[in-house]
Amino acid sequence: MRKIENVICPVCGSLCDDITVYVEDNRVVEVENTCAVGRAKFLNYGLHRKPKPLIRKNGELKEASIEEAVRRSAEILTESKYPILYGWSSTSCEAIRVGLELAEEVGGIIDNTSTVCHGPSILSIQDVGIPSCTLGQLRHRADLVIYWGSDPYSAHPRHIERYTVFSEGRFQKSGWRSFIRRLSGKLVKKRLSRVAELILRRKLTFPEEKYALPPYFISEEERKLVVVDVRKTRTAEVADYFLQVKPNTDYEVLQALRMLVNDQDLEVDEVAGIPVKTLEDLADLMISCDLGILFFGVGLTMSKGKLRNVDAALSLVRDLNKRTKFLIMPMRGHYNVTGANVVFTWQTGYPYAVDFSLGYPRYNPGETSVVDILRRGECDAGLVIASDPVSNFPASAAKTLVDNPLIVIDPDVTPTSMMADVVFPSAYIGIEAEGTAYRMDHVPLRLKKVVEPPPNCLPDQEILARILREVRRIRRG
Amino acid sequence: MRKLKVYLLTGRTIEQGKAKEFGKTSNLYKDSVAVCYIDPSDMKTLGIKSNTPVKVSTDFGSVVVRAEKSSRGSHPGVVYIPYGPWANQVVDPETHGIGMPSFKGVPAVLEPVPGEKVKEIEELLRDSFGEGSKR
Amino acid sequence: MALLIRNGYVYDPMNGIDGEKMDILVEGGKIVDKLKSAEYEVIDASGMIVMPGGVDIHSHIAGSEVNAGRLLRPEDHAKDVELKTEITRSGVGYSVPSTFTTGYRYAKMGYTTVMNPSMPPLEAKHTHEELCDTPIIDKATYPLLGDWWFVLEYLRDGKIEECALHVAWMLYATKGYAIKIVNPGGLEAWGFGRNVRDIDDPVPYFNVTPREIIRGLCKVNKLLHLPHTIHVHTNNLGKPGNYETTLQTMKCVEDLSSGDKPCIHITHCQFSAFKGVDWREFYSGAEDIAKYVNFHKHVTMDMGQVIFTDTTTMTADGPFQYILHELTGNKWVNHDVETETSSGIVPFRYRRRSYVHSIQWCIGLELALLIRNPWRIFLTTDHPNAGPFTSYPQVIGWLISRKAREETLSKLNKRARETALLPSIDREYSLYEVAIATRAGQARALGLKDKGHLGVGGDADIAIYDVDPRKIGPSTQYDEYVKAFSKAAYTIKEGEIVVRNGEVVKVLDGKTYWVKVSSNSEYEVSEDMKRRFTEYWTVQFDNYPVSEAYLKRSKPVQVESEV
User: Fold this and answer.
1) Domain ranges of chain B
2) Alpha-carbon distance B19 to B29, whole Å?
3) Do A134 and C535 touch (CB under 8 A)?
4) What is the interface pTM, i.e. ipTM, of the complex?
5) Model confidence, pTM
6) What residue spans define the domains of chain C?
7) A412 by DSSP, 3-state: which?
8) Interval C117-127: pLDDT, tens
């Protein structure tokens, strides 16, 4: 059995790089330090995979050779007038670079999963800018951590222990101690009230002020965790303070905070059902911290207002920098969606939704973004890589994708690959193939290869390179 | 049967995250995403229990999923379906000119549909998309 | 491929050739004195200028900072597009071009070597990935070390040799070329939103001053025998009155220089040569700086010349960039990098009618014209901070022609025009001096032995410009020169013709230079550092270094160090 250390987990934007992997008989048999999702990936990858390329003949997907699949894919792309190449967020930067070359060669649209995730955040960043940092800065310095519309315990399970409240930094200690204290305090309070109830022989009720901040907040030196969400998420349960907002009201709340931070008066008693007193306390908390960080998730980008919600959040944090040091970071989902944005930007100038049909890169989300093109029925072929739009796009958009010739490159069987015309089983990046990926804070890391892939499962980069070669050959001859 | 007007949210859960690594054709995956988390008080209003079928309908479609009591309370009037093919039958595809559909905060109607079955993934895809493109 | 470049007017300052009509012979990618092969291509360079390929000592073209700038400015890209051709990739400009476009545009101007000056070490892989996608030109990059915790701690404790060993490791781990220092101490202070006030203001929590950092790294540089000097962006950059800080910075390493060799390079000095107290009482400090440089041999600098255009500022100077955002109200990106450095990006427009911008424009040129030794002051625009690199020909025009300067002056802010020193400066650069300022001087300062000259054994990186120096007077017909330098008649890279008549005709991959230090003691990072690694960074020690696989054509420069 081989032990491999410092392996990087290829699942979410946290890109934890301290994983230890045990390999026996070319299979991962045990892992250490992963979260539940990482563990599930390392131990179960490829369980249902079909390790041979497939081509749809007479309505059914039949096994084929790689060469046939490459040829058929190249034919589909060269015959198409406006193909879309979509996905990219769960593959390596090396593969993305080839993908961009291919998209340029066939004059198609290339888009990545930001388009249905943090695309609106990017649009807002392009308007407002963004005061941000790498995650280590927060581990060392952040004493106020806010997760807004984001639930790390569901999507980035080790985030808090590796980078924020429960991590140990040069200038800030872990918040574990205060969390344990609070937990014990709650338990003691529960026990005491049980005893009191037994003695007094009646039920005790404690008037709970729904929105009040805990009294220890401003004075306490230790790290504080605040969660703002529409439901009490798992993360909210360990938070020092949880603010519940109504769905679709984030914009008003953020703007109200912004007014307070800018010393303007709110002439109302409550905003979106939250008393102004609470907002004033929250604003005070933000202004008086040493370094604050606001993490935000798709709770902001997907609800009413979309990019305007992010606009408000970015502007709030920017304004806070007049009073203290405050930073903001979107919680990127897939392990290389940041890498997709980064590579797209350096090669084309634009982070997603890039249209090459005029011979140069054009960018206009709403026009050149994949969901819109699919809804308008404008594309006539698709190549999907490392993504599952049939599962993750609204059904009406996915329909156009399915109704046209579709090439899928994916290590596993997905609803998208089930509807495809050509399927390439690929190697799992970070397990069966090397590659570069960018963490949610733009730190690049090189994912390792720990086992050999099955014979017909090539790395994405190689599959794309072969398709590109064949496309060029068809074009020339 | 009683019906309830709610806001539909879709998103990630840790169960869905894990289950997708087991393969999207697995039962584990289906159980993690063909589900609707409902506030206990709403379940009382509708007179339903966990693990019974409910239909979620929006302006864009309807889907039958398994009802489950939410432990993320309290959030009356708000229901949560994890990302996946079931949720995407009913979300709002409108991108408002910026490319992003409305995956959260979609007005929906919730009703118990005892006796109806939650579709398997192959059936769901077939009913939604036909047999794929014709060639 | 063998070439015979016939009859051109050759300017090769490193070999003392000043416009002599002579032939240049190229074979096997090098300049030779005799062609062995019977077949060779002849380039008729009659009536044309032949110079070594351009060398740019400081231009932000790759890495996280630059890419954040690209992301921030879709509006900048939309107005300047490049179509895909048979041999070139498509792309966009204007002030922060995409990577392929960057390489092509430099080559079109006859430039063949470009140094990327700002690389956050933690994100070094990003810089190298982008450099690999920047075609044709040779390149190198400088890791930001002036606020690195290990540097701050070792220098605070006076442990120069330990510091040197770790700097050597860092150059290896990041495949870097030189020690870059930006607002030393200020970037660490910016971690909590603060800054340092002058070179003796101690860094919060670290108890070491910018003076100690600069001196310490200067000593480290000498111990390691690095090919370039420390490359310094001064404290208080962009602040009225900062010329004093710049003088102090240059003075503080005076005693560390040996003989005539420079030991410090002040980059984009224009931004560090402000006299006065605020934006109203604002004057040029170029004269004072030039006077110092003229009497001291240990300093080189580059201009950072302002161009009147809409551009994008991007530096590792987080606090300064924030101030720029407050001044202009423009969108602002900030990116602090744990344990190491920071950065900021803000779009900026330089306006002719602004008094301050007009004086800034004067400062860059005053520095170039008042510093007598052309081997000490180089042409840059700190691309894209003071202007895009595609404006270099314009700057050449101002240097060679007083008339060109007067033309521009006539359109500037009246108060600036009437009070500045520049209008009274007669000096005009000769083409020999232009060759120093844009090639030879830069290559020499960088310690790149095979670049910046046309002597036998040098790299065959050559630029040929279609303007006849015997017939067309630079002073009066400067626009002919501006046109010629914008669009090289031929650019030759490693003996291959890559540009003909301003169009790219062949694409190849350039080399990435980096410094490999071999030391007397064990070439290993200390156990101390390994142990502290995960305390300091959020990545593991094993995952930090950049492997050579990230460089398409790796060109290590071996140096022997004293530690």
Assistant:
1) 4-129
2) 5
3) no
4) 0.96
5) 0.96
6) 3-52+451-504, 151-430, 512-539+548-560
7) coil
8) 999 999 999 99
